[in-house]
Amino acid sequence: MTPPLLRPPAGRQGPGPLPHGLIAGLDLVIARRAAGALPGDRRAAGLGAGTELAQLRPYEVGDDVRQIDAAATARTGVPHVRLHVPERTLTTWLVVDASPSMAFGTAERLKWDVAEGAALVLGRLAVRRAGSVALMTFGAGRPRLVPPRASKPGVVGLRRALAEGCAVDGRAGAPARHALADALRRTGKVATQAGLVVVISDFRDQDEWTRPLGALSARHSVMALEIGDPREAEVPAVGRLSLVDPETGAHVSVDTSSRRVRERFAALEAERRATVARELRRLEVEHVTLSTAGDWLQTLGRVLR
Fold first, then answer.
1. 6: exposed, middle or buried (C-beta count within 10 Å: 0-12, 13-18, 19+)?
2. What is the C-alpha to C-alpha distance for residues 181 and 188, in angstroms, rounded to an integer?
3. What is the DSSP letter of 131?
4. Which residues pair with residue 146 across a beta bridge?
5. What single-letter DSSP state applies at residue 103?
6. Fewer CB within 10 A of the end CB, N or C, for the chain?
C-alpha cells in the first residue's frame, strides 16, 4: 500500500525515454564509480579470496589447503599459504528528495520526474558487475531506507519505491525540518563500507546540510544532482499571482508586473544557487545540474564525460 504521505504528483509525465544504448554509453564513463568495481579496483579491509596478494606465511592447521603456494613451499621446505585481498563490489547509495517542492514543474516534466529518471539510470548502472544499490528518500516524514540489493532485485526494489511518488504538493502544516541533513546523517550511519553516494535534490532546504554532506564525502565518493525548473529562476510579467508554498501550503500574493519584484526574485534565486554550488565545490562534491526543460539524460551524460 502506498504510504499516505506519498503519491504520484499531479501532472506527472515520467522521466521520458531511457534508451539502452545511451545508458550503456554512460556505463563506460562512470562504471568505476557507479556500476561496481572491476576485479582489483577497490581494496577491502581484511583478508579473503581475491587476486591481489596480501600475505605469504607458513601453513597453520585449519588453513585452506588450496591456498598452499607450491613455489614458496619448495623453496623453504615448509608449507606456505597465500592470503589475498578480498575483492568487493561498490554499493551505490541514492539519497532522493521526495519533498513537496519536487512536485513542481512548468516545462516538459516535473522535478520529481527528472529525479526518478536519474535514480533509475544510476541504479541500473550500479548493479552491473555485481554491484548493489540502496535508496534513501527524505522530505515526506521520516527518511525511508531501501537496503542495498544487487542485480534485478535491486532495480525492481528501486523502481517500486520511486513509483510511490513524492510528498503531496501544498500540504498544510509545518515543513519537515532538517530533512536533507537528517537523511545524510542517516546514510552515513548505515553506509559502513566506502562507496558512492548520489544526492538527488533541488537543494531548496535552507537548513544546515553542508556538515553531514562533508562527513559523507570524507569517506565516500559523493555526487550531487541538483534538479531545477526554469520558472524557479525568474518570474514572468503576468500581473498579480496567488502562489502556494509547496512545503507548507501557505498562500502569498505577488504583483509580477513590477519590474523591481521580478529582478529581486531573480537575484535571490541566483544567489541561492551560487551558494549551493559554492558549498558543493568547497566540499569537493561533484555537482551536476539537471532541468525539467530539455533532455536531462543527455545533459547527465554530457556532464559526466
1. buried
2. 11
3. -
4. 135
5. G
6. N
Among the listed residues 103, 122, 121, 99, the one whose alpha carbon sits nearest the alpha carbon of residue 113: 103
pTM of the model: 0.80
What is the 3-class SS of 179-200, one letter each residue?
HHHHHHHHHHHHCCCCCEEEEE
CATH of domain 6-38+90-304: 3.40.50.410
Q: What's the CA gap between 2 and 49, in Å, rounded?
A: 42
DSSP 226-283: EEE-GGGT-----SEEEEE-TTT--EEEEETT-HHHHHHHHHHHHHHHHHHHHHHHHT
Write the pLDDT tens digit of every residue in 50-85.
Answer: 455 667 889 887 778 888 999 999 999 999 988 765
CATH 3.40.50.410 domain extents, the chain? 6-38+90-304
What gap in Å lies between CA 93 and CA 152, rounded to an integer?
A: 16
In whole angstroms, what is the distance from residue 34 CA to residue 132 CA?
Answer: 9
Of all helices (H) and strands (E), which one includes residue 58?
strand 52-58
Cell numbers representing residue 145 in the block: 531506507
DSSP-based three-state secondary structure for 117: helix
Phi and psi torsions of 74, nearest 5°: -70, -35
User: pLDDT tens across 233-249, in order?
Assistant: 988 888 998 887 777 77
CA within 13 Å, CB half, 37: 16
